[in-house]
Amino acid sequence: MAGKAEKKIWDEEMRSLFKQLEPELKPGDMCIASELRPRLFRFWDISQKIFSLMGDDMLVASPNDSNSTEQLIAVLPNNALEVRKQAIFMGIQPNTVINCVQTEEGQVQLQLMSGDIMYLYKQNEKFLNFSFYSKTDGSGDTCSFESAQFPGWFLSTSSEAHKPIGLSQKGGPENILFHFQRIY
Question: What start and end residues bound the annotated signal peptide (predicted)?
Fold first, then answer.
């Protein structure tokens, strides 16, 4: 029970992250950049499905059992956007970032893309397609991630196992609330 009392709600985790990584020096200053590391989190949806990597380019929601390899998610603040909205970059270390795109047919979707989350952070640019507004949603134990590029679209999981993690709007059959645990 002692560990439960120490657990922070998502908004507290983000305030701590933004405070720790407040830009103190000019962008590109090497002495601060060398000390930076993303925070690592494990996420699972309200149906207890964890994030797993399928192949090199698909993030899926898998049952939390011995056959699933959980994927930790790296998180860094996007200080180029309004800080009070808690805009973050999310990625899979060491070289994959989560991107929001729109297909030629107009469908909004999530895409894993080769790239360095530290590069996004250090540029101090908006990078809306790589940014999510994060917030405590529902109770202090859950959070949601809204695409900065596509307002109203949230990181989501299907009610079915082993389906890709995507983007959906509130009120649909998809899960948009996530539990979290900070690993580092």
Answer: none
